[in-house]
Sequence to fold (815 residues):
Amino acid sequence: MGQQKGSRESLKTRSKYIDHSMRFLDWVNELGFEKTPVGRTMQFLDDTFKIRRLSLAFLFSIILSMLLFYDFDFSYTARIGDTALHDVKSPVALDVVDEVATEEKRKNAERIVPTVYDFDPATFEELYGRVYTAFRRMREEMRQVTLSKDEFVKFDQLKKLMPLRSQFENALGRSVSEQVFEWLIENRFSPRIESLAMQSLDRWSSAKIGEGMDKLINEGRREVLLREVERTGRGRELTVAIRDIKDMGHDEEFPVVKPPISKQFTSTDARLLEDFTRSLLFPNVTLNRQETETRRQRARESILPVVIVVKKGQTIVQEGSVVQPIHATVLAEIENQRSGRNRNFVALVASVMFVVMMLVFSSYLRRFTFNRVRVEGVEIVIMGVVVLIVVAMTKFFIFLTSTALSSVFGSMIPELAFVFAAPVAAAAMLVGLLITAGEVVWIFSLFISVVLGLMVDAKFSFMLVTVVGSLAAARGVFGCKARNDLYVAGLRTGLVNALMIMLVITVQHFGDESYMRQLLWTVPAGLLSGILSSLVAMMLVPLLETVFNVTTDVKLLELSNLNHPLMKEMIVKAPGTYHHSLVVGSMVEAAAEEIGANPLLAKVMSYYHDIGKTEHSQYFIENQKPGMNPHDHLSPHMSKTILIAHVKDGVELGLEYKLGKSIIDGIVQHHGTTLIAFFYNRALELQNEEHDEVSEDTFRYPGPKPQFREAALIMLADSIEAASRSLDEPTPVRLQNIVKNIIQRKFMDGQLDECNLTLKDLTHIEESFTKILLGIYHQRIDYPKRMGGGASEAPAKKVSGNVIPGPGAQKSNKT
Fold:
């Protein structure tokens, strides 16, 4: 019990030592912060919305956006009338609106639009009815009134009748003066007065009568647009000269019908009749202000802005020229676009967009791969670093080439040629070499295409060529067998770029004068881009491998060389393990090809999975000489400890020789949590009441279980190869049974639970392993003993009372 308690305490101490984060969380919990409302809120937000991850993603997006929209300094203070000391060229391509010329064109368009008036021919017909109704009502009122001849009494009577004035005006629809109303009362609203007014209105009704027409003449207008108003809707429109419309302000144009002056009809009556009749005058042509403004606004909007197209590198002001207002406008627009405020705001918006893209892509990856594809933290960092490097490199490349070559060739080379020549496919090549998951590379290619597209003013053609070229580049570097394959991948990417550019340029510019010139420069630029991308990838891959300790296919090719120092040391110190590793490598390589895993990674992992045995090679059966087994003199617990130690020793050697994370993961995982059955059984046999109970967990490898398919293949092949060597007669049936039984035993023991192997994959693995083993252990002729034959008939020897276990017994138990 004391030993078990001590082991538990040491295990607890070791776990604390290994995982510092858990100790930190324990310390925080002791402070009680997470038990406070703020702590619980922060913890809830982080668990629900992944605040820390979002913060890191947003920080990366901010850095990327600032790099993306950073521009090389360009400043030239120019005032109108100054003389340019040197040629001033535009550092960016932009379109500048000439506001002065545009406003002048819009004003001219407004002037052309005629003023809109509504013409209602039925105006006077309605007026006739009102006059008739008003006079009839007033005559009915006057029937009950008899005006006195006494002036004082008559004055009082008229005063009492004045309230009828409002009634009369309402019926008439017009206002009349008090004097005119008294006159009408005195004449008892005579039908004669009504008839005279009607005659005047009848004369005027045939004319087009407006108001304020002189103002239009003063504005220089000669015509107006009349819209006939009908009860059923709007009628026709016609253009009428202003002189054909009578203005109500000109009384001479509206003569009043009056009888001759007599005792019954005095001059005062004539004046009052004229005043009353003119008060009835109403324009049948009225200004439609809203329609006029609408048509003029429409005319303004129909005028396209006068745009000055400025190309990148175009000379705005030549040396010695006087700066004109338009020059100052262009320079001000350039400075406005390049101002820090605008750039920072755009960078912030772009950062949010990048975060949204990353969230959507990660959600898509989790949903449609069913967590089969796991993106490690170091892989995310690698992709972020690659994005920053390629963006900075592309930006500098475009600036350098456009600045240097445009000064020599001028406008001969299209701007797109410099963009298409940039080695943008290097990003996909690097990620394709450093990260093996095809889904991740596809999403990364889409992301980098959008990022680079924003850098060149969101040119769709560039984004389309970039995404297709990036996918071609990632496909080209998949399964590289030599470093020269990178150049082949670059050439293939260049050809794909050239083809895509030719198609895109044809769609966009076919029929233009610049079509052939665009093809002449952009298509070779695409080919050059692929080649440059391979050169950049070749240069950066070793650096990224070293910095992030990543094992790429290119590095795997170097490690597959059997002249590696570790392999040389193994063949000297542990020749049996060396031969075992080579056989396992052949088995897993064939099986990996069958199930779609990485054959090169599986083979190289097999070469190095047992390098830890070189430290104590004599304790492993494949390296022992007949009759010499050190485990005969050790306790089962010590033997188990020595066997497990080869995993730790292998990891230390892997770190020392910088084999890379993938190889080290294979070393750690190739035994999983397998039970060391042989020594566990011996411990059970030696157990007695005086000793502690033997725990099965203490005789298992610490794990973890295989986390990816290549590690699982090594686990299976390691056990199967060891068991097959223990057979005295490796017949096909025996080999098939061993392969099937070991795979089933590993499966039932749960060793394959955490990798992505399916039952179909296990069937293919079984067939592949059996095929390889049958090729290795094919039927041989048993030579005579005098020629070295008959070795298999040697009897087993006893050492210290114990039978030496067969070559596979100890091996299979330790695995």
Q: What stands out?
A: The radius of gyration is 50 Å.
